[in-house]
Write a structure and sequence with these properties.
This protein has helices at residues 3-17, 20-40, 48-53, 71-77, 90-101, 116-127, 150-158, 209-228, and strands at 42-46, 60-62, 82-86, 104-108, 132-135, 162-169, 173-174, 182-183, 189-194. With 247 residues, it is an alpha/beta fold. It has a single domain (3-245), classed as Glycerol-3-phosphate (1)-acyltransferase (3-Layer(aba) Sandwich). β3 (82-86), α5 and β4 (104-108) form a beta-alpha-beta unit.
Length: 247
């Protein structure tokens, strides 16, 4: 197959991927596959009582961009009511459709970019008093495992806690992309962790954010590494971006 043909096929499939109906079909396929993997796995998830406590309260659940796959069933089974922040591009819209099947509504934008519309809609959702937010503080373009400020502003302006969530698994398959996306295979052992809530005082000054941001980043990195070391010696790198994987 020539390079030209490969390039044309790539453009063709990217074109199809932009159609809403194709996105819904893919979302349904992902949905079914994820449930199959989840129900065939042996689960060991710590801190579920925290997840249940905030399932229908203002809270900000944060997780690395590469650790989303198996969190959706956990959210659905624990009847979490909330909004997921998703990228407005094609990939993000397809994932948003899948998350809708798991029961999450969508706010389009980037938690890393700190868009005004995203901030306003997220604060509005939290202030209703019965919804949480789910977002990746290093997404959608990295750097990997670096905590951006978006979640901090949500927490400061609403009083909602930030709660780190992560999972790992036996026989892990880390994709060769910037977020080292973790795919879990059927019949695996799934280890998960819901961290303790971190509150940010409304009077916290912007100049104090760096210390809080770094503390949360350290908590989440340790959470991921502690889960991973149960199954593998591989350590996900920090500071990777999509540009690192362009050919």
């Amino acid at each position: 197959m020539t390079k030209v043909l490969k390039k044309n096929l790539k453009h063709f499939f990217r074109f199809l991927y932009g159609w809403g109906v194709i996105q819904w079909i893919l979302a349904l396929v992902y949905y079914v596959l994820i449930w199959f993997v989840y129900f065939t796995a042996k689960k060991d998830i710590k801190g579920l009582e925290i997840l249940r406590q905030y399932a229908r309260k203002p809270a900000i659940f944060v997780f690395w961009h590469g650790r989303t796959m198996m969190l959706s069933p956990v959210i659905a089974l624990n009847r979490v009511r909330g909004y997921a922040i998703a990228d407005s591009k094609k990939d993000g819209r397809a994932i948003a459709k899948m998350e809708k099947l798991f029961g999450l509504r969508t706010i389009y934008g980037s938690s890393a970019g700190g868009g005004v519309n995203v901030l306003k809609r997220g604060i509005s959702a939290l202030n209703k008093g019965r919804f949480c937010l789910a977002l990746s503080p290093d997404g959608p373009r990295g750097p990997s495992m670096r905590f951006h400020d978006g979640a901090l502003y949500f927490a400061k302006m609403t009083g909602a806690p930030i709660i780190p969530v992560c999972y790992s698994c036996s026989r892990p398959w880390f994709l060769n992309r910037w977020d080292r996306y973790l795919l879990m295979k059927p019949f695996s052992i799934m280890a998960g962790s819901v961290g303790k809530p971190v509150f940010i005082d409304r009077k916290t000054k912007t100049e104090d954010f760096e210390k809080i941001r770094k503390n949360l980043e350290d908590i989440m990195v340790k959470q991921a590494y502690d889960l991973d070391k149960r199954f593998t010696d591989f350590r996900v790198e920090q500071d990777l971006t999509p540009e690192n994987f362009k050919h």
